[in-house]
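sorry for the late reply, my laptop died twice this morning and i had to redo everyting from scratch. anyway the thing you sent over, i finally got around to it. pasting the sequence first so we're on the same page, its 296 residues, then the predicted structure underneath. double check i copied it right bc i was rushing
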Amino acid sequence: MFDTTGGTAKIELTHTNPANSVATTIIKTAATPVNTTAATLNTNPALAVAEITTTAAKAAATAVGVTLDAYVGGSSEQTIYLYATNSSASAENSATTVSDTALAADDVVGLTIAGLTGTATISGAATSAALATIATDMAAAWNAVATTTNTLYNVVASGSNITVTASATAGSRADNGAIAVLFSTGTDTSTHPMVGYKIGYDRATTDNKTLSTKVIVTVMSNGSGTDADARQSGAITWTQAVSATLLSNATTYTAAPSFDQYHASALSDTVSAVTEFTGTKNAGTDVNVNYLGWLK
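ok and here's the structure:
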């Protein structure tokens, strides 16, 4: 997984046959590119994907027994902007008239991210000059309930903005995490909490989620036990001009993995190297049981 926005992203995928050391370039972005027309990948990640997944590059991958793929995803994020007024010109929760930010001491603020909600009250009444305090308290409220066992996201407040960032190692499975801002009245129902906010680039609710601008490239073996098997040591090598995050699956089939392994694994993008079962069945101890009767 890597970033193309800097305009310097270049990749090279080479397959080396473990049996005879014959090297095949699947794709190379360079002054003289191979199986693509790109010297440098486009800064638009969607266009960069098209430059990687060319017909020629896919055919070269197939010829050595693997499947090449690329897509936009991974390390998604989103920004929440708080405003001093609830103006329809800037805020998503827009009112017909412009109103100042108003929070009583017992009013509740909070965030919901991918189904996890954290709420808190602001110490003392908040005015338009206290947006940074509101943002800090909202982020702290969510982080107070967040653990590595119930979320793939991290929340940080900076000034009047709140940034939600997904785990980089989780890959694309953390993309599109829904985000919602919460304001509700406390024990004193005579007050009506109101803070202008916008999630994402525009006021539409369609971007109220974490979005990715990264590119993930995968190479999948088309079979096991062949010379072209990508799981064999050194079969596929990757070179690029910008830093990348290697996505992996830390889980195993020999022992029950911990949740932290699941948390760090890009389960939607990677597959553990596993071949067919080659053991023997122990008569009298290994049995087949039909549990379909449990289904109601």
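Residues 77-207 form a domain with the Immunoglobulin-like fold (CATH 2.60.40).
thats about all i looked at so far, will dig more tmrw
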